[in-house]
Amino acid sequence: MIFDTPLIHGRLVKRYKRFLSDIQLDNGEIVIAHCTNSGSMKTCLEENAEVYLSPAKDPKRKTRYTWEMIKLNGRWVGINTMHPNRIAYEAIKNNEIPQLQGYEHVQREVKVGNSRIDIMAQSNNETCFIEVKNVTMKEQNMALFPDAVTTRGKKHLDELIQLKKEGIRAVMVYIIQRMDVDTFGPAEDIDPTYARALRKAYKSGVEVIPLQVTVSPHEIKIHKELPFIL
Question: Under CATH, to which class is 8-78 assigned?
Fold first, then answer.
């Protein structure tokens, strides 16, 4: 995923009210940037850390910028939760994920039951539904999801379990937007209900694919698949 417009450099002053952040630009101006991440952003906040913003395309939007990434321990961490769906969609269309190759038709946001599943991929032989989640939290060398309780996330797992029961391929893709981890797992201490649901889904045949991506001010691209511990 290549950024459409050049990003704007600054430093984090503070994040507040979940969806807002104060950023000091290189010229000294302090601006308000929209934060798409509604979670706690544990392990993703550091005062005065370098950040990059994207300018808003809609001139009528209240916040003129969107917070895209933050530099932690010398590496960029992507915090925009809107990107993982696009990253996974483009990767599947371009056959960049070995387990998800060979689909001629790939569509985003498809209604299934009472939910919308992020991606539907189809070939002549099968239909596959793929739910995508953004991962930024870490503990030691392990990437964890979620960083806050997510009833919506559990609902999506339940939908995937039902699809699998109906004989349809179902996949959970976790896009890990940081490079300082080497394993993925559920955040049991934060949301034990989600952790149990993920284990149930996996035992039911729902596939789990954690994908680590490299984040830079120019693009976000898939690096490799990580092992997982459920």
Answer: mainly beta
